[in-house]
Amino acid sequence: MMDDQDPIQAERADVIRVQQLRWRFLLELYRMNKQAHAGTIQSVSAEEVGTRIGLLETRDLEQAYAYLADAGLVELVGFGPLLRITRTGIDEVEEAYARPDQRTDHLPPLNIIHNVIYGGVHGSTVQQGTTQSTQTVDNSQSVDWARLREILREVRTAAEDLPAEQRDEVLADVIALDAQSRSPRPKAAIVRECLTSLRSILGNLAGNTAGNIAAAPLIDWIRAHEWLLK
């Protein structure tokens, strides 16, 4: 029976990996476009985007941007190839940030992709189907979720100036936490893992201005809700 399931699990893992690569490519192109001067027409090599997100395998890179181009989210503007994000692509990203638990027109929900890839947020050992994985946050009405969402918006903005690796980790946690804060039954394990991860990442960036700006209000919030980490 196990032998019959293994190919399915392997295919599922590969599908999720491909979906995550598409999302990472599109998000990086979106960030690069935001950093460009107003009025500048974006023209970025696919290889540069791939290098920035650690996608160095040519076949994976070509498949990622080819899918996004077919979906109308990016446009080929020159040989190389040179790419730019389209207005549809920008709307896709911003829609996903606004509703990370919902599928966009072309891509799966951001929070699901990040939760699966990072094992329930950055390597959590909690397994689906256990009592711990379905445990919800107790006394959720006493949690200041609204303030947390305000802080997460600040963290997301500050994260744009972080090194690429830390930025992607922070954004993954922010997306998952934001989704949990809006859920009628927030999952205790996911909330705990995200808060612990963010505190650790931002705390290790003491010399980074963006890290300092993002860390202070979040750490204050965590201190006021220390019981969530237990």
Descriptive report:
- The chain is mainly α and 230 residues long.
- The chain folds into two domains: 2-98, Winged helix-like DNA-binding domain superfamily/Winged helix DNA-binding domain (Arc Repressor Mutant, subunit A, Orthogonal Bundle), CATH 1.10.10.10; 118-229, no CATH class.
- Helices cover 61% and strands 5% of the residues.
- The chain has nine helices and three strands; from the N terminus they run αβααββαααααα.
- The protein has helices at 2-35, 46-53, 58-70, 87-98, 110-117, 145-159, 164-182, 188-203, 209-224; strands at residues 44-45, 74-78, 82-85.
- The chain has a three-stranded antiparallel sheet.
- β2 and β3 form a beta hairpin.
- The protein is globular and about 55 Å long.
